[in-house]
Amino acid sequence: MKQNSSMPIPTNFRHSLFFEDECELPIDPIENETDTKNILLYSQFIFDIRAFEKDSIKPWEHFDKFQPILMMLWEENQLELTDLFKQRKRKDARPLMIRSLGYYLQFLCWSNEQPVTDLVNLEKVTLSIKNKPINLNERLGFIFAKPDHYHSYIQLVQLFEESVKLYFKEQSIRKMNK
Predict the structure, then answer these.
(1) Terminal C-alpha separation, the chain
(2) Helix, strand and coil percent figures for the chain, each rounded to 5
(3) At CA 42, angle to CA 15 and CA 100, rounded to 5?
(4) H-helix or E-strand containing 5?
(5) Is a pLDDT exceeding 60 seen at residue 2?
(6) At what angle do helices 150-177 and 90-111 cross, to 10 degrees?
(7) How many Å apart are CA 105 and CA 108, to the nearest integer?
């Protein structure tokens, strides 16, 4: 992929965990959905930031195609995080935890058919989410406050597990109602 240009990161996405001092995000042309894994690896939240562009790919509208990619990325990170926390390498785990937290937020929003719209005021986003784990805001608050702690990792694992179950439950209900 050739780098095309960059775009300013909207202020509602400028959370210090995800975009420390960055004010711009590189924009690579998004040719098709097969680029998704690389895009999610290197330009997290780009789909969400570009949500209102006319021709942008909207994973929340076709989540069944994107869910396996997000889960694969999470599972790869989870294996590495397990090893890092076993070795008590909190500092090494931190960037991977933050990336995994981003994958979780995308999973949560996209599985509820909406983009991530705000990283700074996350409660505003979670209010509009129908299918979500119990005590979501408190649990996310804990992870955001201490992303390099083992207990945050355990919370993230549990949130992913619960959200995946909720997603498949919703899919089953939809199939039954057709």
Answers:
(1) 40
(2) 60, 5, 35
(3) 60
(4) strand 5-8
(5) no
(6) 20
(7) 5
Q: What is the pLDDT of residue 19?
A: 86
Indicate yes or no: pTM above 0.85: yes
Q: Tell me the sheet residues that pair with 46.
A: none
Amino acid at 160: F
pLDDT, residue 55, reads: 80
Nearest to 102 by CA among 70, 129, 72, 130: 70
Structure confidence at residue 32 (pLDDT): 53
Instruction: State the residue for tokens 């619960």.
Output: 162
What token pair was written down for 174?
Answer: 């939809």
Q: Could you report the per-residue pLDDT of 5-34, keeping only the tens digit for each?
A: 778 889 899 999 998 777 777 776 555 555
Q: How far apart are CA 83 and CA 90, in angstroms?
A: 11
